[in-house]
Amino acid sequence: MSTPLLEVSGLQAGYGDVTVLRGIDLTVDRGQMVALIGANGAGKTTLLRSLSGLVRATGGQARLDGVALQGLAPHRIVEAGFVQSPEGKQLFTDMSVQENLMVGAHNARARALRQQTLAEVFDIFPILAERRSQRAGTLSGGQQQMVAVGRALMAKPQLLALDEPSLGLAPIMADRLFESIGRIRALGISVLVIEQNVFKVLQMADRGYVMENGVIEMSGTGSELLRNERLRSSYLGL
Ligand code: ATP
């Protein structure tokens, strides 16, 4: 069996004296889409921030394609292939769509491929090709979210991490964004996504992990979790 793309074991992290992650075990296989769900404050964002090198791990391990991520600077983690599109889009609102996308391609590996990757991003999000010269700040919320995801793709991730990509989007725009995640997977890029839209994300995901109070409470395939009584009552209101 090949090793997982991302292998997290016993990961601990927090802020100052406050421990948030209390030993996280999670894997993402190559080409998989994995959903991370859980109540507000469970530590999902902290997990992504810790994998991205923005919050220091205080224990445990995380390996991407065999490379230990702990202790690496955030830009080295991007170079290793773990790229996060942050919660809150953080675009340069006065710059054009294309300029914002190009910002994502600044590591050496990505820079060399940026014209080709830009064409892939425009295939995934055709509306961004139409609006490539428009100022990012004048786009709709959903289109801005597409720019944020596209910018992360420009860094040539092996694993793309998304923090609540559908937050604040109208249902139709959220549907389009989920469709685009399908197209991203079709390119062979693995996806780890935090999502409040539990029903939708578990329908698409190969695996889901349910986080509560800094630990993984449950995991399973998307369809197993959708059939799980506890998950249905806690997260789907069924
Ligand atoms: P949400 O969906 O609300 O973002 P989450 O599962 O992503 O929830 P986190 O944002 O990881 O949860 O927060 C986990 C805990 O860490 C919370 O108790 C939160 O108050 C705390 N926390 C988050 N960021 C910081 C910070 N910068 N400094 C101190 N505590 C923080």
From TrEMBL:
CDD domains: ABC_TM1139_LivF_branched. Residues 6-238 form the ABC transporter domain. One of its GO terms (molecular function) is ATP binding. Keywords: Amino-acid transport, ATP-binding, Cell membrane, Membrane, Nucleotide-binding, Transport. Belongs to the ABC transporter superfamily. This is ABC transporter ATP-binding protein. It comes from Aquincola tertiaricarbonis.
